[in-house]
Design brief:
217 residues, 2 domains, three-stranded mixed beta sheet, 1 helix, 11 strands
């Protein structure tokens, strides 16, 4: 009877040890991953982009020229533009309110921003879809406020709020990384310039993002 008891106990112990090891493995996996956060009031992300807008919304796309916590966001040490950028982004937004005040116009928009990791690079502003290639490492809800005089090509400012809804791990130079955490939020300021010529591109922008208080929902 005793021998039978021990023979039945060993498989049970083996199963317990197997499942008991999962938390430690998950902890090790979490420790091996470094999370890059956008710190409050620090310009940790820089954006270079273009946009194509209509009466109903806007498509905005480009690349990140800086991510604080990553030493180099380009795959070349000499050429640093959209063709060598390893991190690109694309925002698709819809107008929810347009208000005119004399020559000025404010436009409120909502949509989604996705940041991609593509170490091979190769994006081109001639092909907006090329900025949506690679691993979607971060997705966020996007709110935008535009203040503009639509009749002139003077520079204008836009303000945005991104709240992260999902992230995906990626490997850079043998290190496992995550860009942000779910519910983290960051605010972006863009300096834009309209294109009043014949190009299909509506305009151009540069800007930066700083972290804001975390969404606790």
């Amino acid at each position: 009877m005793r021998a039978r008891t021990f023979s039945m106990l060993f498989p049970i112990l083996g199963i317990a040890l197997l499942f008991g090891s999962h938390p430690s493995l998950n902890a090790q996996h979490s420790q091996d991953c470094r999370t890059i956060t956008v710190r409050e009031d620090r310009p940790d992300l820089n954006f270079i982009g273009q946009f194509s807008s209509t009466s109903t919304g806007s498509d905005q796309y480009g690349y990140l020229s800086k991510i604080e916590g990553i030493s180099d966001v380009f795959n070349s040490t000499t050429v640093k533009n959209e063709t060598t950028a390893m991190f690109t982004f694309s925002s698709h937004v819809t107008n929810v309110q347009v208000i005119n005040n004399g020559p000025l116009r404010t436009v409120s928009r909502e949509g989604t921003t996705t940041i991609y990791y593509h170490p091979e690079g190769g994006a081109s502003f001639a092909d907006p879809a090329s900025f949506e290639v690679g691993i979607p490492i971060q997705v966020s809800d996007y709110e935008q406020m535009v203040m503009i005089d639509p009749s002139v090509s003077f520079p204008f400012l836009t303000t945005h709020l991104n709240t992260i809804t999902s992230t995906q791990l990626f490997n850079l130079n043998g290190e496992l990384l995550r860009l942000g955490r779910k519910h983290d939020a960051w605010r972006t300021e863009y300096l834009g310039l309209q294109n009043l010529g014949t190009s299909p591109v509506t305009g151009y922008f540069v800007g930066y993002a700083v972290g804001v208080s975390r969404d606790q929902q």
